[in-house]
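Predict structure. Chain length: 84.
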Amino acid sequence: MPPIIYNTVGTLGVACILGAYFLLQTERTHANHWVYNTLNLAGACMILFSLIFDFNLPSFIVETSWIIITLIGFWRKWRNKQHV
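Prediction complete.
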């Protein structure tokens, strides 16, 4: 796969994560909102995809952790809705 493709996907992932953080800091969303969590999950997955082709262990650890933490947040939100 040409580097331009996985670098573009990784860069779009960074844009998603930074966009989510920007929305949070400017109070256009909150940490429990699905938009914030979806942008974080999508961004981390895209960055992880780019790491398949140009591996970097510290980035792999950060992005894998980011995905796990976001999935925990989605699960907790889903679980709380089930108990209401």
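Summary: Residues 3-82 form one domain.
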